Amino acid sequence: MTKQILFSSFFFFTVAYGQYCTSNVGPTSNADSNVELVQINGALGNINFVGCPAVIGVQDLTALSVTLNAGSPYILNVKFGTCGGNYAGAGEAWIDFDQNGNFDPYESIGTWTGTPPVALSSFNFVVPANAQNGITRMRVMQREAGTLPLNPCATYSWGSVMDFGITIGNGIDCTGFIGDDQNDPILVNIMPYTDTRNSSFCYSNNNYVYPSPDIYYKFDPNPLIHSVHASLCGSSFDTFLSVVDMSGNVIAFNDDATNCGGQSALTFQTTGLGSVYIIVEGWGNEMGNYNLTLDADYVGLSENESPGFRVFPNPTNGSIVLNKSIGNARLYQVNGTYLGSYDTKQSLSIDLTPFQAGSYFLKSEDGTITEKINVLK
Fold it and tell me: Residue 197 forms beta bridges with which residues?
């Protein structure tokens, strides 16, 4: 099924996360609506916090901390109340389980609406089994006149925002995982390329297309490649695949490819293109096992053949001779690996005896000439 794509085809939003929103967040007044009580018993430690008097902005209570074990159930008790008058509003709590510096929608552990005075709200939740080990935060918010879902980074007049410390134990050790964002991408340096991973742990949402975790690959096209085929066919979840340049501009994207079920596949042209990010993610909140395959189409003789230019002998088991100078000639393996350059203004002969048998490309510096050479041994 085709889903709505959430970004303009002319611009792509990418964000590098890592710091919680704390400036210009929360209430601008300490009157009226306020969280009166927060209680949670952890695997180690407990929090029992009394809210009044109210505080403007984000109340940093991270020194109050508990340890929660991945895969275990817990109860968060919150009293959404007031330090003054009683007014209707909404409340919500989040724990940043993936430790990306955001309180994402899929990290909400409970919501409330009503008018104080009200009974204690008990939020039953289970820490995801794939939560990442380490120190993170829980945010509890009450917003007078607010509606669900709340924005954990919003600024408003009355209510409260409180951050508590959470340590995740018995979870996933994400040491050594790369590709979580554009600052630490997985490098693609060979073609064809295959990579198999699971996006449901150690990866977070750093791309605004969907709230699912995403994984970044960086690819630098070589001069002999004119297009790349990327596929997620056979993955275990409904995928979304996109390609953006270093400035975040969209090069290509695909949701559901023909004959690929709910998985994605696309082809993009690389001629004149610099480095790009290939981003793997799920539709909506979906995540799981995936297999990314990349393959390239190379420039052929018919596309860049120069009338009157010849290389002989071809095939060769030693040196080749050019019938005319093409300036600084560059030699590549067929997979695009650069092997060296030769000044054909100084000599029209190129010694290929150091190279193994196989196919090679000789390319002029200005890119107008490409010649395929077969080396025999």
Answer: 290
* Phi, psi torsion values for 22, nearest 5 degrees: -135, -20
Amino acid at 332: Y
* DSSP per residue, 87-134: --EEEEEEE-TT-SSS--GGGEEEEEEE-SS-PPEEEEEE--TTPBSE
CA distance 226 to 273: 9
Q: Which domains does the chain have, with CATH numbers?
A: 26-169 (2.70.50), 186-298 (2.60.120.380), 301-375 (2.60.40)
Is 285 within 8 Å of 3 (Cβ atoms)? Answer: no
Q: What are phi and psi of 304, to 5 degrees?
A: -125, 20
Helices (H), the chain: 301-304
| Residue 301, SS3 per DSSP | helix
CB atoms within 10 A of CB 70: 19
- Give the global pTM: 0.60
pLDDT tens per residue, range 211-240: 888 999 999 988 778 889 999 999 999 999
